[in-house]
Amino acid sequence: MSSSNTAPSVKPPMRDALVAAAFRLFLERGYEQTTVDDIVTLAGVGRRSFFRYFPSKEDVVFPDHEGCLADMTGFLAASAPECEPVRRVCDAARLVLRMYAENPTFSVQRYRLTRRVPGLRAYELSVVWRYERALAEYLRGRYAGRPDGTLRADVVAAAVVAAHNNALRSWLRSDGEGDAAATVDHALGYVQTAFGAEAAPGAAGGTPAALFGGPTGHPDDVVVLVSRRDAPLWRVVQEIEAAFGRG
Prior knowledge:
Layout: H1 13-29, H2 36-43, H3 47-53, H4 65-77, H5 85-101, H6 104-116, H7 118-142, H8 149-173, H9 180-195, E1 209-213, E2 222-226, H10 233-243
Antiparallel strand pairs: 1-2
Helix pairs in contact: 1-2, 4-5, 4-7, 5-7, 5-8, 5-9, 6-7, 7-8, 8-9
C-alpha cells in the first residue's frame, strides 16, 4: 500500500483543512447546527473526502487521538524488561500531554466545545477508556503470575489516567497558560509514589517489604515498611505517608 511510506505523524493538507473548517463552523454556528455538508463546502472538498479521513462528525473533533494511541501502544511494546512498569506507563501518558501541548489553541477550543456538547463528552470518555486499556494491557503483562496482578494493573492504569487528566484539564481551564508538563509531572508523581516501588519478597513467609527514600532526599535516609500481603494499596500508601510525617 502506498500509505505505508507515509510517516504516521504527517497529516495530509486536506485533513488539516477539514479540521480547520469544522472548528471554524463549530465556533461560529455551534456543533449541533453544523453538518458534514457545511464542513466540506467550507473546506472546498466533497463528502467522500471527509469520510476518507473521519468516520463521523465526532471524529473530526479528536483528529489526533488515533495516531497518539498508536504511538503509546508502540512505546509500551518497545519497553525493555528492566523498565520499571509504573514509571513506563507514566511516561506513556506524557505522550498524550505532548499531543495537546503541541497546539494549545486548538486543544483549548476542543476542551470548551466538548464541555458544551454531551455527545462529545461521551465520545471523549470512550477515547480515554482506550488509553486506559492500553496501559492496563501492558501492566497485566508485567504483573502476570503475581497475586492480584490483574487488579494491580487495572488500578494503576486507572490512577495514571485520572492523574494525567486532572492535570491536563487544569491546564486547559487556564486557557493553556503555564507549564503543562510540570503540572502533569506533579500529578503523575502521586501515582509513582503510591505504586511505583516494587514489593520485594520477605525472607520469612513472603511478606512484602517496600523501601523508599526518606523525605530529606539524603541517600542514607531509608524507610522500611513491612505490610501484610493482603493489605489494600490505600492502606499501604497511608502507612507510608505516616512514616514520612505526611499523614
